[in-house]
């Protein structure tokens, strides 16, 4: 893999740029926590990123998912079935991962926005990367308790609904890092804005909730933002959340 694809954000914390979606590898000794898995079509790159960092898939203690959209859940079922790796999400997102319902932008919504710069190229990429593939999980698990998880990196899930009902960010207090999924990003192919922002409104299940969740993000002490889309953002996360709120109006 190209070196610029994997970015070391802090000791034992790496952001990996997939085709259009990021995932995060938290390493501690011989074990790894994986946060998100990209599109189904990113699977080879996902496994290659672990190999580049010196880990086999068997080293992954758990997969944590920010939310159950196909570009984040893509290889979760594969990792669970093939290697027995548990996949954990917020309790409100577990039925979403099972596809008991689907809260994801529809083809109709995308077509109504097709006149916007970047939307059609993004949609074509999403389809080619498996965005319409069935990624339903059979055994997703809710977090076993509140607070830090007993996993490499000691991530702390923080419920940030809005993008989906069960969306979570993961706070790494010791590293001063926030893994923000799609609750706060630093870029997207359908946005001409650079830097901290919310995703375009069509991607959110409940826009008011996404805005309210910025308050929870603003309260977290971190100086490095690892978003689900866009580059690493190195600045106080509270300032990033404020900027996203201002841009959203």
From TrEMBL:
Q: Which InterPro entries match?
A: Metallo-B-lactamas (IPR001279), NDM-1-like (IPR050855), RibonucZ/Hydroxyglut_hydro (IPR036866)
Q: Output the superkingdom of the source species.
A: Bacteria
Q: What is this protein called?
A: MBL fold metallo-hydrolase
Report domain Metallo-beta-lactamase positions.
Answer: 20-229
PANTHER family annotated for this entry?
METALLO-BETA-LACTAMASE DOMAIN-CONTAINING, METALLO-BETA-LACTAMASE SUPERFAMILY PROTEIN
What keywords would UniProt list here?
A: Hydrolase
- Taxonomy of the source species: Bacteria, Bacillati, Actinomycetota, Actinomycetes, Kitasatosporales
Sample GO molecular function, one term: hydrolase activity
